[in-house]
Amino acid sequence: MLRQGFLACCFLLLTGCGSGESEPVGNSNIDYVSPVDYDIVLAGNFGEPRPWHFHGGIDVKTGNQEGKHIFSVADGYVSRLTVNMYGFGNAIYVSHPDGNTSVYCHLKRFADAYEAQLQRTGPKDTLSLFFPADKFPVRAGDLIAISGNTGNSTGPHLHLEIHNSKTWAMRDPLEFLGHLVADSVAPQAHSFMAVPVPGEGVFNGDSSKQTFGFGAGDQKVQRSTFSVQRQFTAWGRVGFALWADDYSEATYNHYGIRHTQLLVDGREVFRADVDSIPVSCQPEVNRWGDYDHWRRTRVWYMKSYCEDGLRLPILHTDIRQGYVHFTEERPYHLTYILRDFQNNESRYTFTVLGQRTALQGPSARLQSSRLRLLSCSYRLLDDYRLYRQCLWPQYTHRW
User: Reduced to 3 states, what is the DSSP secondary structure of residue 299?
Assistant: First the structure.
């Protein structure tokens, strides 16, 4: 009876997962246009991991020059101007009737009508002005600013963000401008990291973190599949992490991965879809990524499991929180699927042989028995893979 009650509570919790989502605001059928009058080439994309924060928008190249015309990406009104020698530098905010606000950063100056509202005194100015909806209406394609290199910028470019106007959650600008960006190159994985849980798992006979290269050469193609010939062994509870980058044919730059999926024997155990991130979740990037490893190597391994307390709504796991439980002496077939916004896709597969190994630590025997028991119980709940989303408000494209 207790077990049935537990399952019933889980079902009620899971079926109410979307109840806290924000409702659509205003007219959602507006057209978005390019912020520049030339082909968009990206120097950076949305959600790239950085220490203590995600990259909150896209970086549009300006030919390493200042002085490019910047246009409003959609109908709306200029709602704010900010000036600072740090951060965004000169930035202009345009609020749109679909409930979003676009933010254009690192500008050299604003269009004349907006520049006239400021009382600049020098390069160290810190200014912030807000405007009502009827003061500065704009149409899609209207000139609003001139590109520059102000604020926390390492070279001339346009940093463009799109936020939900109500929650201020960051949204992927490619949701609105993706049709204007050429990309026919699939993401590429470089290596994976095996992370045995202390006292509960081993990988290749070792309880420490280990990295393994996929050995796949650069392939700038739309779709690719690569299989690792080496066979690995594991026992107990093990997490995995991935080092990967996205690319495009137009530039040498590399980007963050929009969509990551980990399958075990064809069943999804983890998925990340970097479509929208609450601003309050910015520091969580250090927990999703292996921050300690980044500090030593400047390489981000993004975890394919969720540690306790990780609250990023872009991460989705099975009931095991993405950890793989090797509790049977048989081959386990693991597949990473990577996709970008244009649905270019790559797959990386490798096999891990479940091989019974003595776990280390005083509670190892208890943990081994617990893992076998939980492995049976979890099968009843695996279909409710997104259960963790019930624990944090949703910030997705379903506004």
Answer: coil
Q: How far is CA 66 from CA 106, 145, 155, in A?
A: 10, 11, 9
Q: 86-90, 142-146, 309-313: which range is least confident on average?
A: 309-313
Task: For the chain, state the CA radius of gyration.
Answer: 24
Tens digit of pLDDT for each residue in 85-117? Answer: 999 999 999 999 999 999 999 999 999 999 999
* 345 closest CA partner among 230, 195, 222: 222
The model's pTM: 0.85
Burial class (CB in 10 A: 0-12, 13-18, 19+), 119: exposed
Cβ contacts of 111-119, under 8 Å, gap ≥ 24? 111/143, 111/144, 111/145, 111/146, 114/78, 114/81, 114/144, 114/145, 117/81, 118/81, 118/83
Instruction: Tell me the residue length of the chain.
Output: 399
CA distance 329 to 326: 8
pLDDT at 359 over 90: no
